[in-house]
Amino acid sequence: MRQLRQSDPRQKPPACAGNTGAVADAVGVEGARPYDLRHAFASLLIHEGRLSVVDIASQLGHNPTVCLDTYAHVMAEQRGAVPVSAEEQILLSRREHGVNPVAARSQLSLFD
Questions:
Q1: Are 48 and 40 in contact (CB under 8 A)?
Q2: 46 — pLDDT class (breaks 50, 70, 90)
Q3: Binning pLDDT at 50, 70 and 90, where does residue 3 land?
Q4: What span, in angstroms and rounded, lies between the C-alpha atoms of 108 and 23?
Q5: What angle do CA 50, 108, 83 make, to 5 degrees?
Q6: Most Cβ neighbours (<10 Å): which of 1, 27, 32, 78?
C-alpha cells in the first residue's frame, strides 16, 4: 500500500476532519487526512478483488471513469496478485509498522 502524504498546512481541513486526527493517531496513522483514509479504503477494496470498478466507484460516489483514472496505479499493482482481505492487509501493515492492534483498538473509546 502507498504511504500517506504529508498534509499541507495551508489547506483548510474539511468539516468532517474534526475527529479524524484523533482516531487516526489512536490507530497509529499519524497525520492522516480524510482523503488519505478514503484512498486507503478504495485501495483495500481493490486489493480484495471482490468488487468491480463500477461497484467501488458507486461506494466512493464516483463514476467508473473517475475511479479508473484515480486508482489505475492500484489496479496495476494488483494485476496477477493473489487477492487479500482488507482485514489481513490492515493486520500486515500494523505488524510492519510495529502497531499493536489490540492496544490501538483499546484507544478508540469513541466507538465503545
A1: no
A2: very high
A3: very low
A4: 7
A5: 15
A6: 32
What CA–CA distance (Å, rounded) separates 97 from 99?
A: 6
58-69 per-position pLDDT tens digit: 999 989 999 999
Q: Which pTM value belongs to this model?
A: 0.63
How far apart are alpha carbons 109 and 64 in whole angstroms? 36
Name, in order, each residue with C-beta under 8 angstroms of 36's C-beta and a sequence gap of 6 or more. Answer: 4, 5, 29
Grid cell, residue 75, equals 489496479
Quote the CA–CA distance of 24 and 104 in Å, as a whole number. Answer: 10
* 100 three-state secondary structure: coil
pLDDT at 27 (0 to 100):
66
- CA gap 57, 51 in Å, rounded: 10
